[in-house]
Amino acid sequence: MQQSASNINAPKNALKAVNTENRHSITEKLTQFYSSFSASSMAQINTLYAKNIVFRDPIHEVKGLTDLHDYFLGMMKKTSTCEFEFLDFSENSFYTWKMHFTHPKVNGGKQVSVDGVSHIKVDDKSHLITYQQDYYDMGSMLYEHLPILGWSIDKLKNRMK
Predict the structure, then answer these.
(1) Does 4 map to a domain?
(2) Taking Cα atoms as reference points, which of 115, 97, 118 lies closest to residue 18?
């Protein structure tokens, strides 16, 4: 599904940034869920994300817990390993992280690491994530590691130095 710039039609109270009381709990849940991002962690998805979750990244926009679950499982089937290392978080619910993954068709099957940031919003009542927008560089994640495209990108970077 393509990303959309449209407004999210959710109640204002459902899209508040994480308050101080919930931040520790959310951080702990995120760290636990993503530290070993695998099919077995999917059993915990409903303790972290709300049923009406809106999840966006540079590849997709997913709405609803079932679709998010399916999206994550689809990603996992394509990678050999995938884990996230949370580096920091801010008052406004921005989490910085580093994703480490291996994919048999990317970078010769060797590990790739990508820096990213997630902006999350949590429902005050349920303490579940209702919105997550991930930001990361698709070039460093994928394009630079593909045989022909990677070579071309490397040549362009060298010309710009």
Answers:
(1) no
(2) 118
User: Is this structure's pTM higher than 0.85?
Assistant: no
Q: For residue 91, give its domain range.
A: 14-160
Q: Find all residues with CB under 8 Å of 20, minimum gap 6, and list them.
A: none
CATH number of the domain within which 101 lies: 3.10.450.50
pLDDT of residue 36: 81
Is 3 strand, coil or helix? coil
Instruction: Give me the number of domains the chain comprises.
Output: 1
Match 């919930």 to its residue by tokens.
22
Beta strand 49-56 with 129-136 is parallel
Q: What is the DSSP string of 17-79?
A: PPPHHHHHHHHHHHHHHHHT-SGGGGGGGGGTEEEEEEEE-SS-EEESHHHHHHHHHHHHHH-
Q: Domain for residue 58, yes or no? A: yes
Average pLDDT, 10 consecutive residues per value, the chain (161 residues): 35 44 75 87 93 94 96 90 86 85 86 92 89 88 72 74 74
Domain assignment of residue 2, yes or no:
no
Interatomic CA distance for residues 121 and 19, integer angstroms: 10
